[in-house]
């Protein structure tokens, strides 16, 4: 009955009314086919779990993107989060002075992470986060039939980063099967830290789609990991018992302080990686430009030969099956390539520039893409899945349990690809389900900051 209902939806809502959305549906099928062909153990795949996960993600997508109350609820939540995080600038202005915006990334963007991390820590102390997480774990476990630990880890990743989520499963890592380790890594690669969502919003990415991407990626990650590295064992750790997440902190102020201090490690990691990777990217572009000029691939006859240009061609077929219109594929492919090979911060910076270009340059091509393409790009690059992240993830897991080093190294590359594919599946699901982007005026932290500084500057 469920399959008949979905097929009816596809025929009536997609094929007859919006045939261009059918490409996203084909993309989901191709992703499943690719992961099945490259699976570690195809015979062990439990197809009931796979189809249940797809159905769960489809239901989430319908609720969030197609119902008026669901869409408005997430849009309202995104607006409130944006308003709440805007108070970060008051703290940054107090510490760094009125002109902190001159070094906006270091003093403005990184301050968002401190404030958000403190907020999450307070919510954990109050026990509110545990309530949300336990409800989502129950839905995932009963909807997909997955184990308690992998479901818990997937649910925690919706709200916090992979590092914080890893601490939840750390005591039982030595008991996990190899497939469960792969699931933990895939969960981490397919989502982003809640504290960094504010950063992406500040760049101009639509907040409501960033939040919904976190929810949709949880079942997507479990579907992909069950395809590429299925578990033959039925005696997984605490299969039906949901582990309790303890409350931490000696009070609200202590929890806020602990959360803010914990953000320092995240900030350090982000800053040093962005400096190193942007510098490396510029060096690669300089080499490519030099080489391109000498073989006749350069202005004015050709576009400058850069790493981003190469990515725009290499990833063009992939972003096309996500549902991106052909005219926008080069730009979105550029973002996806930068996200995979460099990191998502630079990719979202690029997306933010494109969004602002669309608002300012409605009649120009190559500097703007459609609202639908912006939406799909937001989902496709919303994941901690790049080659630098792979090294960090392997090092973190190995330090927790050195005896599982060989298994962790074995799972690493496959889990990275799985995380990337989970992000793509989420983008396909959003592209297939979403009718049109009911975009209102794009309010970003950058515009807020500009207005604030103009008012406060004598």
UniProtKB/TrEMBL annotation:
Its domain of life reads Eukaryota
Protein localization? Cell membrane
Its protein name is Sodium/nucleoside cotransporter
Q: Which PANTHER family match?
A: SODIUM/NUCLEOSIDE COTRANSPORTER, SOLUTE CARRIER FAMILY 28 MEMBER 3
Segments crossing the lipid bilayer? 21-38, 50-69, 104-126, 184-203, 261-290, 302-324, 376-400, 412-431
Q: Which GO terms describe its cellular component?
A: plasma membrane
One Pfam entry name: Gate
The UniProt record lists the Concentrative nucleoside transporter N-terminal domain at: 26-98
Sections of the chain in a coiled coil: none
């Amino acid at each position: 009955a469920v399959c008949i209902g979905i097929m009816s939806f596809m025929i009536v809502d997609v094929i007859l009314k919006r045939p261009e959305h059918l490409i996203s549906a084909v993309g989901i099928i191709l992703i499943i086919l690719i992961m099945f062909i490259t699976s570690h153990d195809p015979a062990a795949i439990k197809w009931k779990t796979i189809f249940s996960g797809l159905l769960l993600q489809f239901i989430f997508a319908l609720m969030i993107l197609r119902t008026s109350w669901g869409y408005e609820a997430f849009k309202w939540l995104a607006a409130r989060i944006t308003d709440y995080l805007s108070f970060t600038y008051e703290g940054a202005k107090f510490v760094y002075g009125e002109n902190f915006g001159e070094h906006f990334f270091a003093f403005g963007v990184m301050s968002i992470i401190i404030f958000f991390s403190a907020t999450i820590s307070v919510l954990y102390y109050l026990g509110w986060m545990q309530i949300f997480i336990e409800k989502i774990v129950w839905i995932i476990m009963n909807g997909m039939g997955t184990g308690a630990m992998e479901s818990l880890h997937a649910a925690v990743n919706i709200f916090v980063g992979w590092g914080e989520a890893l601490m939840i499963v750390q005591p039982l890592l030595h008991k996990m099967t190899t497939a469960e380790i792969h699931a933990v890594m895939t969960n981490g690669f397919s989502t982003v830290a809640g504290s960094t969502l504010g950063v992406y919003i500040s760049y101009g990415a639509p907040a409501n789609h960033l939040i919904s991407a976190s929810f949709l990626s949880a079942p997507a990650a479990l579907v992909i990991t069950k395809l590429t590295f299925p578990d033959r064992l039925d005696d997984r750790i605490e299969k039906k018992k949901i582990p309790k997440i303890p409350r931490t902190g000696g009070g609200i102020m202590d929890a806020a302080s602990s959360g803010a201090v914990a953000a320092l490690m995240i900030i350090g990691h982000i800053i040093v990686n962005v400096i190193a990777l942007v510098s490396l990217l510029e060096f690669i572009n300089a080499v490519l430009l030099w080489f391109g000029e000498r073989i006749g691939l350069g202005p004015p006859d050709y576009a400058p030969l850069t790493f981003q240009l190469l990515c725009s061609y290499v990833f063009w077929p992939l972003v096309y099956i996500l549902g991106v219109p052909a005219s926008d594929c080069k730009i979105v492919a550029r973002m996806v390539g930068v996200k995979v090979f460099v990191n998502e911060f630079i990719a979202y910076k690029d997306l933010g520039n494109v969004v602002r270009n669309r608002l300012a340059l409605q009649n120009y091509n190559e500097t703007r893409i459609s609202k639908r393409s912006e939406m799909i790009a937001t989902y496709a690059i919303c994941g901690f899945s790049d080659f630098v992240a792979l090294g960090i993830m392997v090092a973190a897991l190995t330090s927790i349990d050195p005896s599982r080093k060989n298994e962790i190294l074995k799972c690493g590359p496959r889990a990275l690809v799985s995380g990337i594919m989970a992000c793509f599946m989420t983008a396909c699901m959003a592209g297939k389900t979403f009718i049109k982007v009911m975009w209102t005026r794009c309010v970003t932290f950058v515009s807020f900051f500009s207005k604030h500084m103009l008012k406060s500057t004598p």
